[in-house]
């Protein structure tokens, strides 16, 4: 009899050892709280811990307890739990560069620091980039002036195009403007295998190997058939049925914060008058229009080519619809 009992005991142990684990526990990893957790196969005195008082200090790991999985019945509906943390909203918007970021995340702080430095102090520029268009002087200190070079980004060079995209992104973030259509890059059409000429240009102002300002503008208006319109500066309302031909449309014009109040934007506009279209010595101011001018851009347009409406006393600035 002792031998028989020993063999039965050994057989039961072998059966318990040879029982394979569940093939897939991903669908059974959650335990419903409506049924008590019990271990019907265990004969030893195992004391189960009571539920933790704090979820943060006692995390539950179901994958370390395979016996808990066996108690889930097939017909039991599973409930997804979510961890809710009482974390305040730490998103900030920088008053200088207008970038929104989460100050409690190191990566966000790093991205903002890089963007902030470029938007305030300017982006690095290499001497081999761009084609010089002209230059002008600004005062950087009392009684001291320095020459600012104005260069045109070459749409055939990928590095310069990438830098142009970065600079326009800086401007769009601060101006709360959408991304442009890329009119200043080389365009392709389904009917032509070779790229067409760009429909516009990007000028950058460089001082001591830093870009301190930029302007992007369209010039192919005979193709797009875009026309200028008058906008009331005070209200932003466009006057209907008052259209006129234009040669240049200012899409973005931006100066880094450290170098503002030096008439840089106005000087860039004067260079556009003289160098934007081949064969035209000087474009008239009334042939230049602005796309969605901001409050500061509206004041720039008012000084550059605004018109005072005598009957109403309203200031009108030329605008156009950007394609």
From TrEMBL:
One of its GO terms (cellular component) is chromatin. It comes from the Eukaryota. Residues 245-306 form the N-acetyltransferase ESCO acetyl-transferase domain. One of its GO terms (molecular function) is protein-lysine-acetyltransferase activity. Keywords: Acyltransferase, Cell cycle, Metal-binding, Nucleus, Transferase, Zinc, Zinc-finger. The keyword Membrane does not apply. Pfam families: Acetyltransf_13, zf-C2H2_3. Residues 24-48 have a biased composition (Polar residues). It is found in: Nucleus. Residues 7-16 have a biased composition (Basic and acidic residues). GO terms for biological process: mitotic sister chromatid cohesion. Residues 80-118 form the N-acetyltransferase ESCO zinc-finger domain. This is N-acetyltransferase ECO1.
């Amino acid at each position: 009899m002792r031998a028989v009992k020993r063999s039965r005991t050994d057989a039961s142990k072998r059966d318990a050892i040879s029982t394979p684990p569940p093939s897939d526990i991903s669908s059974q990893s959650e335990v419903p709280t409506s049924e008590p957790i019990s271990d019907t196969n265990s004969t030893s005195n195992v004391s189960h811990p009571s539920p933790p008082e704090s979820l943060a200090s006692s995390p539950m790991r179901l994958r370390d307890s395979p016996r808990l999985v066996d108690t889930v019945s097939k017909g039991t509906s599973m409930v997804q739990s979510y961890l809710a943390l009482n974390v305040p909203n730490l998103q900030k918007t920088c008053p200088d560069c207008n970038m929104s970021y989460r100050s409690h995340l190191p990566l966000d702080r790093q991205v903002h620091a890089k963007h902030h430095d470029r938007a305030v102090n300017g982006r690095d520029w290499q001497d081999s980039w761009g084609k010089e268009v002209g230059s002008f002087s600004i005062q950087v200190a009392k009684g001291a002036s320095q020459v600012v070079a104005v260069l045109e980004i070459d749409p055939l060079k990928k590095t310069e195009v990438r830098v142009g995209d970065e600079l326009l992104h800086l401007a769009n973030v601060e101006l709360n403007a959408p991304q442009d259509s890329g009119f200043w890059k080389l365009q392709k059409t389904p009917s032509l295998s070779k790229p067409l000429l760009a429909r516009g240009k990007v000028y950058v102002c460089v001082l001591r190997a830093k870009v301190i300002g930029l302007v992007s503008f369209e010039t192919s208006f005979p193709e797009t058939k875009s026309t200028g319109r008058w906008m009331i500066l005070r209200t932003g309302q466009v006057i209907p049925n008052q259209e006129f031909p234009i040669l240049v449309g200012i899409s973005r014009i931006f100066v880094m914060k450290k170098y503002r109040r030096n008439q840089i934007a106005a000087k860039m506009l004067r260079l556009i008058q003289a160098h934007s279209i081949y064969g035209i010595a000087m474009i008239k101011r009334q042939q230049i229009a602005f796309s969605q001018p901001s409050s500061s851009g509206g004041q720039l347009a008012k000084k550059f080519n605004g018109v005072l409406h005598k009957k109403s006393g309203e200031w009108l600035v030329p605008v156009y619809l950007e394609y």
